[in-house]
Amino acid sequence: MGGLKLKALAKAEAKAKVRARTKAKALAKANDGIKSQSQANVNVEAKAQAKSKAKAQTQAMANAKTKAQVRSKARAQPQAKTKPRDKNKAKMFNILDFLDFIYLHMILNL
Q: What is the mean pLDDT of residues 28-46?
């Protein structure tokens, strides 16, 4: 679970950085020559990263929760075991089959 969570977080952070960079570039082109633009770019990037990181964390937690629920359900419902075979019953059927075989041969040989 830990590896998947870290992978999801890293992926989300990378996407957030790309989004933030494109937003920052668009803002810089629109407001060319403004000194405070770099600060605005940093703020936009930080907000985007925080948002995507929070989203990834909630998704990872939800995934972990559903996996845990599946595991607990699997533990709660063990597989039904087959009934043990009654050896005496099996012997009885074999004897009856044998007696039927002898009886049939006796009738056929008369």
A: 67
